[in-house]
Design a protein that fits this description.
This protein has two domains: 83 residues, no CATH class; 48 residues, no CATH class. It contains three helices and nine strands; from the N terminus they run E-E-H-H-H-E-E-E-E-E-E-E. The strands form four sheets. Strands 7-8-9 form a three-stranded antiparallel sheet, with no helix packed on it. It has a two-stranded antiparallel ribbon with strand order 1-2. The protein is flat, with a radius of gyration of 24 Å.
């Protein structure tokens, strides 16, 4: 997953804030929990070298484990695990935002409407904000051209229309 989306594993805190009225700054925040995915992965990776049999190179070079460093890492890992296990938020990925209108929450994905740059087309595509980066491409739903994010939006292959 990280090869496709390097930002797929961030620690994330989910909270709610109510605005007194549109345009005003929220007066209070309610924290619902934190997902510690990246932190736990770092601890997992760091402890891996202690859990596996040393390589021949390590044995020949007399590389011994630093047990004081291991003890500190284990303490940090336990603290992170306690936080993760006590959190109400698990394995979270958010691509939406909610807006309260007329006592209802309206949820919409964070996306951009991208228009085809061909003058005679008028096609549009809704692209999630996490996909707005150079090199991402998609077919135009109007003319069939292949569109690609560059320094702007470029037509990389014209459609039949």
């Amino acid at each position: 997953m990280l090869e496709v989306d390097p930002q797929a594993d961030p620690d994330a805190t989910l909270c709610l804030r109510e605005r007194p009225s549109p345009g005003e700054t929220p007066t209070s925040t309610q924290i619902l929990g934190t997902d510690y995915l990246r932190t736990l992965k770092k601890h997992y990776d760091a402890l891996g070298s202690y859990l596996h049999t040393p390589t021949l190179a390590h044995i020949e070079q007399s590389k011994n484990h630093d047990y004081a460093k291991l003890a500190l890492r284990c303490t940090q890992t336990v603290d992170s695990l306690e936080g993760a296990l006590n959190s109400k938020v698990w394995n979270s990925t958010f691509s939406i935002r909610g807006v309260i209108e007329d006592q209802r929450v309206r949820v919409a994905p964070r996306q951009f409407c991208v228009a085809c740059p061909q003058d005679d087309c008028g096609g549009e595509a809704d692209i999630l904000d996490r996909n707005v980066e150079r090199g991402i491409s998609w077919p135009c739903n109007g003319c069939g051209s292949q569109l690609t994010f560059a320094l702007g939006v470029a037509i990389t292959k014209r459609g039949g229309n």
